[in-house]
Amino acid sequence: MGNIIHFLITYLAKHPSILNTINFSKMDVMMCVQLLSLIFVLTTYSCAEYIIHKIHHPDTTEVNSFLITKDYLIAYTCGVVEYLIERYFWPSKSDPHSIMIYIGYALIAVGLYIRFAAIITAGKSFTHLVQLRKTKDHVLITHGIYKYIRHPGYLGFLIFAVGTQIMLKNFFSVIGFYIVLWNFFNRRIAYEERGLIDMFGQEYRDYRDRTPTWIPFIK
């Protein structure tokens, strides 16, 4: 791969006039911007997850801490495939003046902010795996963003993931991402909260009753 890239760079340096024969429309440029934006935000998200987990849990951090799972790869592959197919038949998907693209960017930013605010606020109490046993570092976090949102990490990821598909103007993937993630978080929250009640008892029940998840139809 390195040799191929080196060849292309060398060839273009020797024959710069070839670039003049390529006509890029504004929509072609926007398509590149959309796809590169997707790669950038996904890379930033995974690297940040790994680094923060490494800071708080150095002994248990591993490759899986990047949170790049098989289902994750399948989901985003489907999103890119939908984008490319629809872009071929409907070039307006890359209309640089489309408000949906910028709504997607805004949701990505909001989702990442909520997600990482939750992780940083919880510190060592935040783990990628559901904890059913209380450890010495495990405390109930009810301040900061947790004062207003129960399970803000889940809400943040949901907004972020759906935002990536809105940015690509993927109608079917927006719906698919939301349904799959809603079902996953609905089950996970119910399972996790049983453990939290076992660990913190009435203190957690009171917190649960006064603090919403803000995920529709998940109390």
Automatic annotation (TrEMBL):
PROSITE patterns on file: SAM_ICMT
Catalytic activity field: [protein]-C-terminal S-[(2E,6E)-farnesyl]-L-cysteine + S-adenosyl-L-methionine = [protein]-C-terminal S-[(2E,6E)-farnesyl]-L-cysteine methyl ester + S-adenosyl-L-homocysteine
Subcellular location: Endoplasmic reticulum membrane; Membrane
Top-tier EC class: transferase
Main location class: endoplasmic reticulum
Membrane-spanning ranges: 72-90, 102-123, 154-181
The entry's keywords: Endoplasmic reticulum, Membrane, Methyltransferase, S-adenosyl-L-methionine, Transferase, Transmembrane, Transmembrane helix
Biological process annotations from GO: methylation
GO MF term (any one): protein C-terminal S-isoprenylcysteine carboxyl O-methyltransferase activity
EC number: 2.1.1.100
Cellular component aspect of the GO annotation: endoplasmic reticulum membrane
Bilayer disposition of the protein: Multi-pass membrane protein
InterPro entries: ICMT_MeTrfase, PPMT_MeTrfase
Family statement: Belongs to the class VI-like SAM-binding methyltransferase superfamily. Isoprenylcysteine carboxyl methyltransferase family.
PANTHER family reported for this sequence: PROTEIN-S ISOPRENYLCYSTEINE O-METHYLTRANSFERASE, PROTEIN-S-ISOPRENYLCYSTEINE O-METHYLTRANSFERASE
Official protein name in the record: Protein-S-isoprenylcysteine O-methyltransferase
